[in-house]
User: Fold this.
Amino acid sequence: MFSPIFAKKFSICFAFLFTIIALTTIIFTDIRIFAQATVPEFTPDYVLSDDSFRSTRAFPNQDSVQNFLDRVNSPLKNFRNNNKLASQIIFEAARGVTSSQYGYTPQINPGVILAYLEKEMSLVSDSNYNTSTDPQGRIQKAMGYGCPDIGGCNPDYQGFTNQLNWGALQLEINFVTANPSSPKKIQPYVSGSKITTLDGYTFVISNQATAACYRYTPHVFYGCYNLWKIVTANGWGVSDQRYLYDDLDKANIGKTPTTAVSVENISEQEGQKLIFQSYS
Assistant:
């Protein structure tokens, strides 16, 4: 049996030890949370990891896409095309159900498709947009596919379902052919190749996902940067960590210097040849 004095001392020591452990846990937990909340730095040469480009962690099925559209009150939440909900069209295009052609089967993160819908036409966030009347034609050119900076939009690719199927297919082709060993690679949109974007940034492309983005939208700001920002802020990649758009912008806008003095203009004919490369 412990004496009362010993028991009291033991109790005090135990309480003190427990307090130290608790405080240490809180301190390290706070450090971990702070570390997770540190705003990431955008680098033009590495837009998304290849795993994030392929991931279905955030959107494993159509229901997860629909739940997101409902939650943010997207103008697409009740939109239908050919009697299909937008969520079904998005998921099926991303995962190659409706978008497979020329021997390519898209296996793209549905969050990447959502990010393109947002960065191209604000079809995720603009709750007031009327998708029925489509006054600005955003539904018709939802992913900006076939709408290069040079020249107008190609009518062959217009329509919501059409845009998503062609856009997803193009991203898949861009990704696969960005492998340096691909016999169908298109320079400079290849991992390990040097590129100068249309807004004057020069760097070496670090991976296939980055090459896929720049071949689709050859701008850093506000092209591939916006893709990175939307996917990163919402935690749609392999990580579920989320950030505020404003925090990402404050940490990155204007802090990525361009190394190019000027951008060489390319002709409309050259641009059309680059964008509408034949894959058949």
Summary: Strands lie at 80-81, 84-85, 194-196, 202-204. The chain has a mean pLDDT of 84. The two ends are 88 Å apart (CA to CA). The chain has ten helices and four strands.
